[in-house]
Amino acid sequence: MKKLIADIKASMGVYESEPVYGLLAEFADPAALLHAAEETRKAGYRHFDVHSPFPIHGMDKAMGLGNSLVGFFTLGGGITGFALAYWLQWWTGAVAYPLNISGKPFFAIEPSIPVIFELTVLFSAFGAVAGMFALNGLPRPHNPLFYSRNFARATDDAFFLHIAASDKRFDLEETRRFLTDVGGRNIELLTEES
Amino acid sequence: MGHSTSHSPEPPLVTGNLSFHELTELVARHAEKKPPLGWYIAIGISSLLLVNLLVMIAYQVWNGVGVWGNNVPVGWGWPIVDFVFWVGIGHAGTLISAILFLFRQRWRTSINRAAEAMTIFAVMCALLFPTIHVGRIWVIYWTLPIPNQMDMWPQFKSPLLWDVFAVSSYFIVSLMFWYVGLIPDLATLRDRARSFVRQRVLGVFSMGWTGSNRHWRNYEKAYLLLAGLATPLVLSVHSVVSFDFAVSIVPGWHTTIFPPYFVAGAIFSGFAMVVTLMVIARKVYGIEDLITLNHLEKMNIIILLTGSMVGFAYITEFFIAWYSQVGYEQYAFINRATGPYAWAYWIMMSCNLLAPQVFWFKRLRRNVPLMFAISILVNIGMWFERFVITVISLHRDYLPSSWGYFSPTWVDVMTFAGSFGLFLTLFLLFLRFAPMVALSEVKGVTPQADPHFYDQESS
Predict the structure, then answer these.
(1) Is B195's pLDDT higher than 60?
(2) Chain-chain contact of A53 with B145 (C-beta, under 8 angstroms)
(3) Average pLDDT, chain B
(4) Chain A closest-CA separation from residue B227 CA (Å)
(5) Quick one: pLDDT at residue B282?
(6) How far apart are CA A7 and CA B110, in angstroms?
(7) What is the ipTM of this complex?
(8) A127, B3, B56, B451: least buried by Cβ within 10 Å?
(9) How far is CA A21 from CA A15, A120, A145, A147, A184, in A?
(10) Which of A58-67, B9-18, B299-308, B332-341 has the lowest mean pLDDT?
(11) Which pLDDT value is given to residue B358?
(12) In chain B, where are the structural domains located?
């Protein structure tokens, strides 16, 4: 159970490793980062992540990440919205307060379509956004990465690769050497309290 | 090997060959430095209009909506015209963000943020009018399915209630779409922030975003799904607005062409408003490299396309009125073009159908002062389109003894002017405090963002 939670957290980029959090290396450009991510995966590391100011094409494959699961949350939201809208219109119109309007049926599909459609879309969108936040583990106000000197540039023009200390293969010296070999610069040791 | 075709590279979407950092500087700077004098003058004027709006709302709530020009036979006057006008403008943002995203039109990245903001503010202005129009604003919650002491529920067979659901769903989804798009850029601002308060506030709104690829993966999927969801939504909203009219039996309203015709008109007016605002903003903020002449030209092509669709719909309505051989329907349209409101009809025709035709010429499409003038004309024309549909159809229907002539009161005029105050104030605050261009997306479409860019360099 504990391992499962740790694995789920690792998929969000949240690593349980104290006091050493991991090693952070900077790369020159998107191509170098893509190459480094591929090498890191090939070297057997699993608890690692890359940080860039924009999504890099091909990075999911390089990191060995599968398809995102956000779609299932969206589908769930859509089914909820559809069912809610259908039930709401049927129950209020035909059960709770039946009102005869020009002899029309108390509930019929045809006039219910617009509201069913709108609520299906609305709840699907809720599902997509909530699912995205949940799978990303956001909001996350505390992150040891923020202690780094250089990391603020990850949202501007710098490209980083982070290997977490919780990874089974993580070894301070060996991993540092590995990061240098794949072209990393400004290698920094991250700890919980810097 | 064996490729006989030659590769002709796409013209760059962002000019000036800026580095990632220069792009950040170009956009983020405006949300950080003191705004230019022009901004203070603009917000001064728009806040005066906003105060005027608040006074007008208070006056209407106190006196009741009898202070409007609405009276039998024209029960839907300016408030509904203004509502449809603003909802229409609120269509361009989501169209640019969602539909152009699905079609992989990457030029949208420079304008989508501002257009989405514009959408949200326009829908807020739109929601104002029906809220006052219900007459008893303090029981507006009766339109929502909330249990109450009367045990009554909203009537789901009414198109007016569909409208409540459509416009509010649209507002919420547009707001989420806009916010999700903002998160990476708010993180950029957070990381540049120097003062403690600014760091904390931006830290809360950016949710701890780090640009992690594990996050980008879910983020991009969610963004794609939101775009896919917003596309049918944006088309449905103005269709549902048109049901308010089309489901009735008033001649001139009871037509099946209304949903597509309203949607085309909404896109048309929305793009015109985007051009109006962007022409000013790119000049004032010096971001001509991000919002280039090519962007403006593409928007003008869409204005030409949708304007011609709308004009085609005007002509089709006439044809169908004749073809139906229904006397009332025929009279409704002859009365539009030749009756007491013929002036409104011809303003609409010349602004919406004729004015955009100048965009057939490439030179004129790329002429900034001209496109600004045309975009204003289109805004005026689209307001008159809603006036024509609402007022002319109602003022003479079946029984000549109940015909009348509608005139607005000063309250109608001042409230409409005030809604521009709300719109412009919110837009100016957006320009001041938020990144007005989607930074992460613009960086993503530059040539150096593609890993293959570096292959060519090394070979």
Answers:
(1) yes
(2) no
(3) 88
(4) 9
(5) 84
(6) 38
(7) 0.91
(8) B3
(9) 8, 42, 9, 11, 18
(10) B9-18
(11) 93
(12) 33-446
A1 inside 8 A of chain B by CB: no
Contact status of A8 with chain B (Cβ, < 8 Å): no
Helices B37-63/B410-433 angle, 10° precision: 140
Contact yes or no for B191 and A122 at CB 8 A = no
Domain ranges of chain A: 2-65+143-191, 70-136
Mean pLDDT value of segment B373-394: 92
Q: What is the pLDDT of residue B291?
A: 84
CATH 1.20.1630.10 fits B33-446, yes or no: yes
Say yes or no for a CB contact (<8 Å) between B165 and A114.
Answer: yes
B361 pLDDT above the threshold of 90? yes
Interchain CB contact of A65 with B (< 8 Å): yes
Residues 6+ apart with CB under 8 A from B179: none
Token pair recorded at residue A119: 């609520």
Q: Does A131 contact B213 at a Cβ distance shorter than 8 Å?
A: no
Chain pair A-B, CB pairs under 8 angstroms: 216
* Chain B residues 22-41 with CB within 8 Å of chain A: 24
**Residue owning tokens 């490793």:** A17
At residue B210, the pLDDT reads 87
- Number of helices and strands (H, E) in chain B? 19, 0
Q: pTM score, two decimals?
A: 0.91
Nearest Cα of chain B lies from the Cα of A83 at a distance, in angstroms, of 15
